[in-house]
Amino acid sequence: MDISELLNSSTGQSLIRSISDKLGINEKEASGVVSTAIPAILAGMTKNAQTAEGAESLNRAIESKHDGSLLDNLSNILQGQTQELQNDGDGILGHVFGSKRTAVEQTLSKKTGVSSGKIGPLLALLAPIVMAYLGKEKRKTSTGAGGLGDLLGGLLGSGSQGRSGGGIMDMISGTLDKDGDGDVIDEIFDMFSKKR
């Protein structure tokens, strides 16, 4: 299972409609931005999970707050006041991207054509949803801190599943795969691992 299944579900469609309304962009634009932003967040988490300390920190955050229950009521939450969700997302993004958050927002803005002023709130809204999805999958697979990197790779649609297509990465590879090697993870990592 990867996160493209969430995006293609009724919950995902509700998320895209909500983001379209909140940011004042059409649903096609919203879908494109979400399809690009979620892998960027997941890639940031994957990078953090490459160290034992980072994996443990991510694991603690999931265990304490992000068990997946947010997804059960997401449509109602998105129709209401989302400030609490965005505040939570700002905290998550601080851990995921650190000082590189602005660079990530600017890169996503260039890739999608949506202003970076709208990308910031969008990322903040998406981060808790991504964490909830990760928490749900972690619980389902009984994954510990040491296995989070592999779990994240699976959600990204990359990794050892031998998948030939259909993952979220396929949805955005044409946009982000600058070097044409079929692997967009390196390009997403470059958003915040290199100085721009």
TrEMBL record:
<protein>
    <recommendedName>
        <fullName>DUF937 domain-containing protein</fullName>
    </recommendedName>
</protein>
<dbReference type="Pfam" id="PF06078">
    <property type="entry name" value="DUF937"/>
</dbReference>
<dbReference type="InterPro" id="IPR009282">
    <property type="entry name" value="DUF937"/>
</dbReference>
